Amino acid sequence: MNAPASTNRIVDFPVKPEARPYLDAFEGGVARDVETEPGSIARHRRRGLARFAETGFPSRRSESWRYLDLRPLARDPLLPAQAPSARVLRAMDEHLTGLLLPGKGPRLVIVDGYFAAEFSSLDMPAGIWFGTISAALAERPELIDELDTEIPGDGEHPFAALNTAFFADGYVLKIAPGVALDDPIEIIHLGSGATGSFHTRSLITSGEGSRASVLEVYAGEGRYWRNDVVAIRLADGAELARTAIVEESNEAVHTGQIDATLGEAARFAGFALVLGGRTVRHEASVAMAGENARCRLDGAFVVSGRDEANIVTTVDHRVPGGQTRELIKGVAAGRGHGAFQGRLIVREDAQKTDAHQLSRNLLIGARAAIDTKPQLEIYADDVKCSHGASIGDLDEAALFYLEARGIPAGEARHMLIDGFLREVVETVDDFATRTHLLRRLAGRLSNLEE
Amino acid sequence: MMLEITNLHARLADGREILRGIDLAVAAGEVHAIMGPNGSGKSTLAAVLAGRAGYEVTEGGVRYQGHDLLAMPADERAREGVFLAFQYPVEIPGVNNTYFLRAAVNAQRRHRGEPELDAGQFLRIVRAKLKLLDIGDDLLQRAVNVGFSGGEKKRNEIFQMAILEPKLAILDETDSGLDIDALRTVARGVNGLRAPDRAIVIITHYQRLLDHVEPDHVHVLQDGRIVQSGDKGLAAELEERGYGTFDEAAGEPA
Questions:
Q1: Would A33 be classed as within a structural domain?
Q2: A-B Cβ pairs (cutoff 8 Å, strict)
Q3: 3-class DSSP state of A310
Q4: Cβ–Cβ contacts within 10 Å for residue B254, how many?
Q5: Is the CB of A408 inside 8 Å of chain B's CB atoms?
Q6: Which fold has domain B3-251?
């Protein structure tokens, strides 16, 4: 299938029309650069591109993508962006205000998909390697071998394949066995206002018995498409909390995917707060590969205007004794459309699995819409699994209670919406992260119904 | 006059008429008790006065400090000093009790053109009132009424009343579901709020709260009308005889 490197033709089969501009972009520029990359990266890129060329954009006919309208993106391609100029980077300073945690913890800033050293501080205690993919390629190529491992389900995820073809940079966080880090590590993904797509590929590996937490922030300006893939590997007994806050611009497309594998008795807490973006899909896939692993996947989305947001989760229990807890809340106002799709798979060998999934949603106004689709697939017989879903309006009795205390109707509605979402945000363990999320949430809700 | 109810008729959305001609005048400084059996219209009266949706006033009116009370939305009534202690306080997950109370106090202060209180100033006021009602600090940090016992919910209502210092307080079955200790605490809270510029209307089925909060006037509500009024002696009489003796009077045309 691969064309010889000497030609600029990548594939020799019919290409989906929406994929054509991306192929041309690859042949026109990226292909030359990647030949200088070490190891097997170039081969992976070509394979990813070929796969994308074959599948094209996901269709709404595919169950997993049915709630998202990607036609505008297919009509009007957003090709991989160039690295931002020094002038553009200097202007980023003010954009970072409000997005950062207080203090000077370890921080990596990525602008338009490229590392921005001037805003980053990568000093880490012994036992932790934290840096960009490009630095890892130069200094620690063995880390990249782990990144090479194929993202499962690439075939179902054309955008992960596209990401493989085009990722400009990303980060690698490797935590040695037994190392515990109290302060959260921040990764800030910014869009400078450049029109294009930003592809980042990252890798977190947590060694045996290690403990750490990561906050990833996605924000930007203007029209762009962020396509982000993070692979997470937790060794036995490792603990990791990964929190994402998506505050993209109101013209932006965001497709983010994390793919986590948990070893024996490992603990993973994934949290996603989706507050902004025209079209957002945040997906988490977790493989419970070691016995007695524990997984929490919580989060919330807020959509208004004509925003669309999907939170999609899959937890695959493959071995006995796993525990999963999921709480996803949604608020849709205006003509916003939100969706939650959650699959819980319990395979034949995964006896004594204890999994619970809950989706709760609030509709504000008559034109907003929410779809929720919790899904249990159970093939083992000795398990404790449940799921639930609700979609409702604001509680009239609660509204009256607040109004009867003199709180104006608008403020009362705001308090109830905030309270509804706060309940799930407050499950985030790290204090600084939680405080930050609550502040960003309050800012988002202050103009929800305008 | 603090509150003047004239020939008040109200019905539910389904058309059932619940209030059928209530007349009542409450002056500042007075405590009135409105007693009556289940279904007599007590809670409907409280709901109509507080401005709850779902009731239609078909006749008559209510004046509060000379203004047309029914013309004001519920939140404005509250900011003007009307307080309803709920029979069933509502649980509001995710909304912190202190945050909620400060929002209420500041809404009232804005309404009066007074500066808002910051968290520190508010906390000082709160601490002083906590003792009065035997309420623990932890209650303040919890979500509004969530996981509160029945007694805690009722005490929280009176606590809110103490913080908001209303002109007209309406207590809807505040005594129901309280053990004797909680009843005494609540009564202490209510008595502490008796003041020459404040009126209190206690709506109750039983006399027990009235043993601790002595009313100036007692009214018997039956089938949507006040069928008898008297002093505190009437409450004791009712406790002894029950409400059955008033059936006849209620049957007469208004």
A1: no
A2: 82
A3: strand
A4: 13
A5: yes
A6: Rossmann fold (3.40.50)
pLDDT tens sequence across A261-287: 999 999 999 999 999 999 999 999 999
Query: Strand pairing partners for A218?
Result: A189, A246
Give the tokens for residue A386: 């449940």
pLDDT band at B104 (very low <50, low <70, confident <90, very high): very high
List of chain A residues whose C-beta atoms are within 8 Å of the C-beta of residue B143: 419
| B73:A397 CB<8 A | no
- Pairing of β A107-111 and β A185-191: parallel
Residues of A in contact with B75 (CB under 8 A): 403-404, 406-409, 412
Contact A403 B75 (CB under 8 A): yes
The partner residue sitting opposite A401, judged by closest CB among B92, B108, B164, is B92
A366-398 tens-digit pLDDT: 999 999 999 999 999 999 999 999 999 999 999
**A19 in a structural domain:** no
Residues of chain A contacting B111 with CB distance shorter than 8 Å? 406
Whether A401 has its CB under 8 Å from any CB of chain B: the answer is yes
- A422 to chain B, any CB pair closer than 8 A? The answer is yes
Mean pLDDT score of chain A, rounded to an integer?
91
Measured distance CA(A304)–CA(A205) in Å, rounded: 36
**Structural domain for A203, as ranges:** 84-394
Alpha helices in A85-230 (DSSP H): 86-90, 92-96, 133-139, 141-148, 158-166
Cβ distance B50 to A404 less than 8 Å, yes or no, reads yes
pLDDT at A323 over 70: yes
Provide the whole-model pTM: 0.89
Q: Name which of A20-34, A73-87, B170-184, B195-209 the model is least confident about.
A: A20-34
Residues of B in contact with A421 (CB under 8 A): 94
Distance CA A217, CA A265 (A): 28
Could you give the angle at the alpha carbon of A359 between the alpha carbons of A356 and A364, nearest 5°?
165
Task: Say if A118 falls within a structural domain.
Answer: yes
* pLDDT of A48 higher than 80: yes
Is A78 a member of any domain? Answer: no
Of B78, B91, B95, the CB nearest to A406: B78
How far out from the chain centre does Cα B131 lie? 22
Contact B94 A403 (CB under 8 A): no
Give B63: exposed, middle or buried? Use CB within 10 Å, 0-12, 13-18, 19+.
middle
Chain B interface includes A438 (CB < 8 A): no
Q: A400 CB near a chain B CB, below 8 Å?
A: yes
Q: How many domains does chain A have?
A: 1
